[in-house]
Amino acid sequence: MKSLVNILKNPLLIGSLFLISLNTVAQDNMGNPIPHFLFPSFREGVIIFKNGERVKMLLDYNMVEQMMVTELDGVYRYSKNPAEIDTIYIENRVFVPVGNIFYELLSTGTYPFYLQNKSNFTPKGAEIGYGAKSHSVGPTQYTRFEQTGGLSLYNTVVHIELPQNVEITPASMYWVNKNGEMEKFTSVKQFLKIFPEKATMLKEYIKKEKLNLKHRQDVIRLGNYCNVLYMK
After folding, report:
1. Taking residues 204-226, what's their average pLDDT?
2. Where in the sequence is the domain holding 225, given as residue range(s)?
3. Of 75, 40, 47, 93, whose CA–CA distance to 159 is shortest?
4. From 97, 200, 204, 214, which residue has the greatest number of CB atoms within 10 Å?
5. Helices of type H across the chain
């Protein structure tokens, strides 16, 4: 992972690589809402393969299926072999494969920080009387986009539309690679347990800066500060 290694050499570089979340709803190229996607629309991205090849494509990330999607001439395809990918850049945000899914790299240094952008489909409850709700739903329906040729890097069929009778439930989580082990956290308490030797200073920083771990940019700041501490 040569490109990722180069990024990790600078513990503060990634601090400038975040965007304020847009309030618009994600849409496909026909204007249909796709709120389970990370970006409001497909964006130009750069895929760097482990063999050094670089490819530019329109990309977005399906947070429910946790798969990178490309769009070309109205046809949508999932990445076929994530293991062959080293790094993906989309609007100055950095994504690396972890198994068959992608984590977003937030902070670099001794202990890299990642965001697993994730959502779930939750059945909408239908009122059945006395305030009760039924959570049964019929078969989900998707529009299928068949491959019409060409792109060997991507699978032949992609489900792009939101299924009927579901809601989007946020389920993102953060990870930090500490000594080769991926540690998960979603709260301050969980985070401090990962770094007990620096817990006092980290806790003071979180309180002083009023960081909220529900906000991606605050976790970037926390990750950068944590990596600076371990440089000393």
Report:
1. 97
2. 2-229
3. 75
4. 97
5. 2-8, 188-194, 199-209, 216-229
